[in-house]
Amino acid sequence: MASRQASAGYYLDSRTFGGDHVRALGELEAQVMRKIWAHSGPVTVRDIVGDLQHDRPIAYTTVMTVMDNLRKKGWLRRQEDGRAYRYEPAVSGEEYSAAVMRQALAASSDQAGTLMHFLGELSAEEASALAEAYRRLTGTDTP
Q1: Exposed end of the chain (fewer CB within 10 Å): N or C?
Q2: Beta bridge partners of residue 89, listed in sequence order
C-alpha cells in the first residue's frame, strides 16, 4: 500500500494550489505531515517524534528541523507555548492530495485518457470513496 501513498502525490516534485506553483513534500516531510494531519489539533515536535518512533528511530532534532522547514515553506503555522512551539497544518491533507491530482491532470496532453487510467486503477474501496464524494458534492446518486 506504500506505493499507493506515493502515487497519491506525496513524493512529486511540485504541486499547485490556486494556480500558485509551490514545493512538494520530500519523503520525511510527507511522513511528518501525515502524522500532523492525523492529529485533531496543534502538535509539538515531541508529539510527532513519538508518533514517528512507532515506525522507526528518529532524532528529536531531525523532526524539529523538518517541522521548522515545513513552517518556512508555508506548510505549517506555529504558536509559542511556553518554551516549545505548537504546530498546525496550513493546508489539509485532502487539499494537498487534490492539488496534486489537479496538477497531474493539467500536465496531461489527454486529460480524458488520464482520468480513464486513474479510474481504471481504483480499488473497490477507492471507487466507493469516489462515489461517496460525488454524492456529497452533488446531493445525488452516481450515474
Answers
A1: C
A2: 76
Q: Is residue 58 part of a domain?
A: yes
| Other residues' Cβ atoms within 10 Å of the Cβ of residue 108 | 13
User: Is the pLDDT confidence value at 96 over 50?
Assistant: yes
All three cell numbers of 51, joined, read 508518533
Mean pLDDT to the nearest integer, 50-65: 97
What residues pair up with 14 in beta bridges, in sequence order?
Answer: 23
CATH number at residue 34: 1.10.10.10
**Alpha carbons 55 and 75: distance in angstroms, whole number:** 23
Angle at 26 between CA 122 and CA 123, to 5 degrees: 10
**DSSP class of 77:** E
Give the predicted TM-score (pTM) of the model: 0.71
